[in-house]
Design brief:
Blueprint (H helix, E strand, L loop, with lengths): L8 E2 L1 E3 L2 E3 L6 E6 L4 E7 L3 H17 L7 H30 L3 H21 L14 E9 L2 E5 L5 H14 L3 E6 L5 H12 L7 E5 L2 H10 L5 E5 L2 H14 L3 E4 L5 E4 L5 H13 L11 E5 L3 H13 L18 H16 L3 E4 L14 E4 L6 H4 L6 E7 L2 H8 L7 E5 L3 H10 L4 E4 L18 E2 L4 H5 L3 E9 L3
Parallel strand pairs: 1-5, 7-8, 7-10, 8-9, 10-11, 12-13, 12-17, 13-16, 15-16, 17-18
Antiparallel strand pairs: 2-3, 4-5, 6-20, 11-19, 14-15
The structure holds nicotinamide-adenine-dinucleotide.
Length: about 475
C-alpha cells in the first residue's frame, strides 16, 4: 500500500505538507469494479483553502517559479516527469481501483502526465515576446507574464492526466496553482502531489485539495485571490463557474462536454472505423469528453457498419480493471443509473438496440457496450452527452446532410471523417464545427496537438504550444528614446 494510504486516508497537499484538512470529515472512495469502499480522502475546508491560496500568492510574489531561470524551470519540470514515472506502477494500481479503468489505461495516464511535464518543461525557456517597430525614437516590446494564482478544477474521468495537462503549462509559464481534486477518485492525483514533493517543487507553488465541487470547488473559483480559472468538466458546472468568474472578472478556460460525431463515407475503410469505434466509445467505458458518441454512416454501407459494430461490442472482454479487460465499469452507481436511464429513452424515440442497451448483471457498475441504430438526430440520446459506453448510429445520403447532422448539437468538441478521398476529407474538415477533426483514426494526435471546444464544449485550448498562451497575458512596454 502506498505511503499516502497507510491508514486508508489520502490527505491534502497544502503549501508543501500533507494535511488532514479542516473540512470536518472524509469523502469515501469506492472501487466501482467491486462496489466496495477502498479508501477515504480527507476533506479540505475553508482554512485549508485559505492556506493554499496564501501560500500560492506568497510563492508567486517571491518569484519561486516566475523568477527562476527559465531553463532551470524546465529542468524542474523534467524532474517532476521522472518522479511521475517512478510512481507510475503504484499510482496506476490505485487509479485503476478508484476509477474502474483498466490497469493499462491507468498506466497510460501516468505516462501521459509525465509527457506533459516533459513537453511544457521543454518550452519553459521559449516563451518569447516580440519587438514592435515604432520608428527611431522608440523601443517597444511585448513580454508574456504569468497570471499569478491559477485555480484548476479537475474531473474524475482522467484525474491524473487532465491535472497534468493544465498544471504543466501553468508551471512552465511561472504561475502558482491550486488544484481541486475530483471527489470520486482523488487518490492517484495525490500521487501527483507526491511527485511534486519528491521533485522539490517550492512549497506553496502547487497545492492539491480534496473536497466536494459545490462546496470547496465553488469557494475556490469564487475567491478574489484567484487570477485565472481552468475548468474541465460538465457544461452546467462550467456555467456556474463562469457566473462566479464574472463577479471577480477572472479569465477562465472552459473544457466542457461533447457529443462528437464520426462521418463515415461510402469509401471508408470499415476496419479502421471499427477499430476507432472500439477506442472511441469503449475506452474508459466511454467516459471520455471526446468520445465517438455518434456515428453517421452513408446509407450504402450503413447496415454492414452497424452489424460489424454490434459484433465488436458484443465480443469485448469484461472484467475488473485490474485484469485489463477491453471493457470496464463506469465510475459510480449514480453514473450507471444516468447512463442506463438516458439510453433507455432511445427505444421510445424509435431507435433499435443493436448491442447492449442496459447494465450487465454482475458485480460492479458495468453498462453493456451499447450500439444504438437508426437514432433520430433530434432525439435525446443523439443530443445529450451520455458519458458512458453508448454510441448512436444514423444513416445519411449526402455529404451536406452528414455535415448538417454532425454540426446539429449544442456541442463542438471533436469530429471525425472516414474516407479515402483526400479532397473530401479536407473539404468536410473545414465545415465541421469542432475544435479538432480526426481523419481515418479517432483520437489521432497527442499532447502536442491543440484541443478544445466550440459552442457548449467550451473555449480556450489545452495541449500543444497553443495552450501555453492561455496561462500568460501579454504586456507591452513602450520606451521613448527621446530623453
Ligand atoms: P462535473 O462538472 O460534475 O465536475 C467536474 C469537477 O468540477 C469536479 O472536480 C467537481 O467536484 C467540480 N465541481 C462541481 N461543481 C462545482 C462548482 N459549483 N464549482 C466548482 N467546481 C465544481 O463533471 P464530471 O462529472 O466530473 O466530468 C464529466 C464531464 O466533464 C463531462 O461532461 C465531460 O465531457 C467533461 N470533460 C471534459 C473534458 C474536456 O477536456 N473538454 C475532459 C474531461 C471531461
Amino acid at each position: 500500500m502506498n505511503a499516502l494510504l497507510q491508514d486508508g486516508l489520502a490527505r491534502n497537499y497544502v503549501a508543501g505538507s500533507w494535511q488532514e484538512g479542516d473540512g470536518g470529515g472524509v469523502i469515501a472512495v469506492e472501487d466501482p469494479g467491486l462496489e466496495e469502499h477502498m479508501a477515504d480522502s480527507a476533506q479540505a475546508g475553508e482554512e485549508s483553502l485559505a492556506q493554499a491560496l496564501e501560500a500560492a500568492r506568497t510563492s508567486f510574489d517571491r518569484g519561486d517559479l516566475a523568477d527562476m531561470k527559465p531553463a532551470a524551470r524546465g529542468r524542474l519540470m523534467g524532474r517532476i516527469a521522472q518522479e511521475i514515472r517512478a510512481l507510475a506502477d503504484e499510482g496506476a494500481e490505485l487509479l485503476c481501483r478508484e476509477s474502474g479503468k483498466s490497469l493499462s489505461a491507468a498506466h497510460d495516464e501516468f505516462s501521459e502526465a509525465a509527457e506533459y511535464f516533459e513537453y511544457y518543461g521543454g518550452v519553459a525557456d521559449k516563451i518569447e515576446g516580440k519587438s514592435i517597430p515604432l520608428g527611431p525614437d522608440y523601443a517597444d516590446y511585448t513580454v508574456f507574464e504569468p497570471y499569478g494564482v491559477s485555480a484548476q478544477i479537475v474531473p474524475w474521468n482522467f484525474p491524473v492526466s487532465i491535472a497534468a495537462r493544465s498544471l504543466a503549462p501553468s508551471m512552465a509559464a511561472g504561475n502558482s496553482t491550486v488544484i481541486k481534486a475530483p471527489e470520486l477518485d482523488p487518490i492517484a492525483l495525490a500521487m501527483l502531489g507526491q511527485a511534486l514533493e519528491r521533485a522539490e517543487v517550492p512549497a506553496g507553488t502547487v497545492s492539491i485539495l480534496n473536497g466536494m465541487g459545490g462546496d470547496l470547488g465553488a469557494r475556490l473559483v469564487a475567491s478574489s485571490e484567484v487570477d485565472q480559472i481552468v475548468f474541465t468538466g460538465s457544461v452546467p458546472t462550467g456555467q456556474a463557474i463562469l457566473h462566479a468568474a464574472a463577479d471577480t472578472v477572472t479569465p477562465a478556460l472552459m473544457e466542457l462536454g461533447g457529443k462528437s460525431a464520426a462521418v463515415v463515407f461510402e469509401d471508408a475503410n470499415l476496419d479502421a472505423v471499427i477499430s476507432s469505434l472500439q477506442s472511441g466509445i469503449f475506452y474508459n467505458a466511454g467516459q471520455v469528453c471526446s468520445a465517438m458518441a455518434r456515428v453517421l454512416v452513408h446509407r450504402s454501407i450503413y447496415e454492414d457498419a452497424v452489424a460489424r459494430a454490434a459484433e465488436m461490442a458484443n465480443g469485448l472482454s469484461v472484467a475488473h480493471g485490474l485484469e485489463n479487460p477491453e471493457h470496464t465499469p463506469v465510475v459510480s452507481a449514480l453514473q450507471l443509473s444516468r447512463v442506463e436511464a438516458l439510453t433507455s429513452t432511445a427505444q421510445q424515440d424509435g431507435a433499435r438496440v443493436a448491442a447492449g442497451g442496459a447494465r450487465i448483471d454482475r458485480k460492479g457498475y458495468f453498462m453493456a457496450p451499447t450500439i444504438l441504430a437508426d437514432v433520430n438526430p433530434a432525439s435525446r440520446v443523439a443530443q445529450e452527452e451520455i458519458f458512458g459506453p453508448v454510441t448512436c448510429f444514423t444513416p445519411f445520403d449526402t455529404e451536406a446532410e452528414a455535415i448538417a447532422m454532425a454540426n446539429g448539437t449544442d456541442f463542438g468538441l471533436v469530429a471525425g471523417i472516414f474516407t479515402r478521398d483526400l479532397a473530401r476529407s479536407h473539404r468536410v474538415a473545414r465545415k465541421l464545427r469542432a475544435g479538432q477533426v480526426f481523419v481515418n483514426e479517432w483520437f489521432a494526435g497527442g499532447i502536442s496537438t491543440p484541443f478544445g471546444g466550440v459552442g457548449k464544449s467550451g473555449f480556450g485550448r489545452e495541449k500543444g504550444l497553443e495552450a501555453l498562451y492561455n496561462y500568460v497575458r501579454t504586456k507591452n512596454i513602450a520606451i521613448s528614446l527621446k530623453v
